[in-house]
Design goal:
single chain, 220 residues, mainly alpha, Arc Repressor Mutant, subunit A, 2 domains, three-stranded antiparallel β-sheet, two-stranded antiparallel ribbon, 7 strands, globular
Length: 220
C-alpha cells in the first residue's frame, strides 16, 4: 500500500468535504496510524481508549459520533463489536489502489465492495470468538517456541520474539495491546526475512552507489 498516494488522496477529499471538522480528521489520522502500526492489513481491531487518546478526543459520545460519521461518509468501514473481550473492527479503503480495464480506463475499489467483504469476514470470525480470545497472548515461552518451530523458524528467533514483547508488556510499539499474538509473530517473521534479504543484497552491491528509487509502500 502506497501511503504517500493514499494520504494525498485522503487530504484532497478532506479539502472538498464541508461536513468534516478537525475532530473527524484527527480521528481518521489516529485510525491511519493504528493501521500503519499493524502494517496495513485489510482489516484490524481497535481499542477505543487508545484511539481516543491518539486523536485527543475526550468524550465517548463525540468519539462514537465521529466514527459513525466517517463510516456513513464512506471514509472508513466500521464494524462495531458486541463482545466485551474483542474490540471493534475497522477497514480503511486503500485510495491508492486502482485497476486498469481493457479499454484503458481505471476503476477504483469501491467502499461498498470493501464493506461487503468486511461483513462476510466478520461473520466468519464471530463463529470462532473463543479461539481468537485464547490466542490473544501466549501462555508461556514454550508455547511461542512451539509456534515458531511449526512455522519452520529457529527457537532462537522465537526467544527473541518472546523476550521483546514480554519486556514491553505485550504491546505493539509499547502502546497498543496485542489482540492476536499469532499474527504479531507472523509479522515478526516477515520483518526478519526482509532484514535478512536486505543484508544479503547490501553485501553484494557496491555501497558507493546509491539509488533514488524509494518504496513508499512500506509503513512509516
Amino acid at each position: 500500500m502506497n501511503y504517500i498516494k493514499h494520504l494525498n488522496a485522503v487530504f484532497q477529499k478532506f479539502s472538498m468535504d464541508s461536513r468534516l471538522n478537525p475532530t473527524h480528521i484527527s480521528l481518521y489520522m489516529a485510525l491511519f496510524q493504528y493501521w500503519n502500526i499493524n502494517r496495513f492489513p485489510d482489516e484490524f481491531y481497535i481499542n477505543r481508549e487508545d484511539i481516543m487518546k491518539m486523536s485527543k478526543i475526550g468524550s465517548k459520545a463525540t468519539y462514537h459520533r465521529c466514527l459513525k460519521n466517517l463510516h456513513g461518509w464512506k471514509y472508513i468501514c466500521y464494524l462495531p463489536s458486541h463482545n466485551p473481550y474483542k474490540g471493534s473492527k475497522i477497514r480503511l479503503p486503500k485510495l491508492d489502489t486502482s485497476t486498469e480495464t481493457s479499454d484503458g480506463t481505471t476503476t477504483k475499489t469501491t467502499f461498498e465492495q470493501l464493506q461487503e467483504q468486511a461483513l462476510v469476514s466478520n461473520t466468519n470470525i464471530n463463529k470462532h470468538i473463543t479461539n481468537i480470545n485464547k490466542a490473544k497472548l501466549p501462555k508461556d515461552k514454550n508455547e511461542v517456541l512451539i509456534f515458531f518451530e511449526k512455522q519452520k523458524w529457529s527457537s532462537l528467533e522465537g526467544e527473541k520474539f518472546f523476550n521483546h514483547y514480554n519486556g514491553i508488556g505485550w504491546k505493539i510499539g509499547g502502546k497498543i495491546e496485542i489482540t492476536d499474538w499469532h499474527s504479531t509473530a507472523e509479522n515478526w517473521m516477515l520483518k526478519s526475512k526482509e532484514i535478512e534479504t536486505s543484508k544479503a543484497v547490501s553485501q553484494k552491491r557496491d555501497n558507493l552507489k546509491t539509488s533514488k528509487i524509494k518504496n513508499y509502500g512500506q509503513p512509516l
